């Protein structure tokens, strides 16, 4: 069995932290996203944008990482935004209703412009 691979890139864009997971986000790889995402989310007043454009798959474990980061950000006056979700990833949010608790943007540029 091969472990699905996930790469996570974090960049700063003004007041925003842009977290870009690339690959498959599932129970094998969720910890690779959790640490950098929560580190950004725990900064007081943080505005974290998760660029989902390179995310090929997201299961419930990955969804829980995103939801957990959202709660941490809101606890310190920050927020987590999702941008550029592909159809496969968007479907997970649609089925679970999780899209309703996030601010979702069609593109990364739209998320940064807000």
UniProtKB/TrEMBL annotation:
Its domain of life reads Bacteria
Q: Which CDD domains does the entry link to?
A: STAS_anti-anti-sigma_factors
Family the UniProt entry places it in: Belongs to the anti-sigma-factor antagonist family.
Q: Name the species this protein comes from.
A: Streptomyces orinoci
Q: Which NCBIfam families match?
A: ant_ant_sig
Using the record's annotation, list all stretches that form the STAS domain. Answer: 6-114
Q: State the protein's name.
A: Anti-sigma factor antagonist
Instruction: Give the PROSITE patterns listed for this entry.
Output: STAS (PS50801)
Q: Which InterPro entries match?
A: Anti-sigma_ant, STAS_dom, STAS_dom_sf
